[in-house]
């Protein structure tokens, strides 16, 4: 089996995931990971799929185009490339960084620049911006993996300082603590 990543974008409507899952099932594909969301009225889905070695990616793309015709979706397929061991930190700790405060241009750029400068990987990012100055209406959540050799105190200090400069409340929690406190 070969692994591919399939990204699907388009106007949200019922049945998109079912249509994609059925196409993959009919072509002996297995969905291994999926992340899907609706942003405003738009659908965005990313699927990691194992497909038979004999199925060319171009053939799968053509079959998906035919099956999804009329749904006005953009589909992109590419191979999943194996990560080099040297590119993957051996030990990481997962944290949740949350900012609350007024919506402003460059907010994501400013915070993620600090995160990247410390060689920290953002593994998930979510934003709820409703505009205005109500801090509870504008929330940004960054899930990050921090390598063991990163100076966490320096990273956290820089994030909090930038948050203060931008009039943001910055909360940083280890993922285990965040999940324990937010468990339903």
Number of domains: 2
The major beta sheet can be summarized as:
4 strands, antiparallel
- Mean pLDDT score: 86
Number of H- or I-type helical stretches: 5
Give me the Rg, rounded: 20 Å
At the fourth CATH level, what is the homologous superfamily of the largest domain? ACT domain
Q: Report the sheet-strand fraction.
A: 35-45%
Through-space gap between termini: 37 Å
CATH architecture tag of the largest domain = 2-Layer Sandwich
Task: Summarize the topology.
Elements: E1 2-11, H1 16-26, E2 30-39, E3 42-51, H2 57-67, E4 73-79, E5 92-100, H3 107-117, E6 121-129, E7 138-147, H4 152-165, E8 169-174, H5 175-181
Antiparallel strand pairs: 1-3, 1-4, 2-3, 5-7, 5-8, 6-7
Describe the structure.
This protein has a 4-stranded antiparallel β-sheet, covered by helices on one side. It has a 4-stranded antiparallel β-sheet with strand order 6-7-5-8. The chain has 2 domains: 2-79, Alpha-Beta Plaits, CATH 3.30.70.260; 89-181, ACT domain (Alpha-Beta Plaits, 2-Layer Sandwich), CATH 3.30.70.260. By secondary structure, it is of the alpha+beta class. The model has no long low-confidence stretch (mean pLDDT 86). It is built from 5 helices and 8 strands; from the N terminus they run βαββαββαββαβα. The chain is globular, with a radius of gyration of 20 Å. The longest helix has 14 residues, at 152-165.
């Amino acid at each position: 089996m070969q692994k591919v990543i399939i990204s699907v974008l388009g106007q949200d409507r019922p049945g998109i995931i079912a249509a994609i899952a059925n196409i993959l099932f009919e072509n002996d594909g297995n969905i291994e990971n999926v992340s899907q969301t609706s942003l405003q009225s738009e659908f965005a889905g990313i699927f990691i799929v194992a497909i038979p070695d004999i199925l060319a990616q171009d053939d799968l793309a053509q079959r998906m185009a035919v099956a999804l015709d009329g749904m006005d979706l953009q589909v992109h397929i590419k191979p999943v490339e194996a990560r080099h061991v040297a590119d993957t930190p051996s030990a990481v700790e997962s944290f949740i960084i949350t900012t609350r405060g007024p919506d402003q241009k460059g907010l994501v750029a400013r915070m993620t620049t600090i995160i990247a400068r410390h060689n920290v990987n953002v593994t998930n990012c979510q934003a709820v911006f409703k505009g205005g100055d109500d801090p509870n209406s504008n929330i940004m959540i960054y899930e990050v993996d921090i390598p063991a050799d990163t100076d966490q105190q320096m990273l956290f200090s820089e994030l909090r300082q930038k948050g203060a400069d931008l009039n943001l409340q910055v909360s940083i929690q280890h993922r285990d603590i965040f999940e324990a406190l937010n468990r339903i």
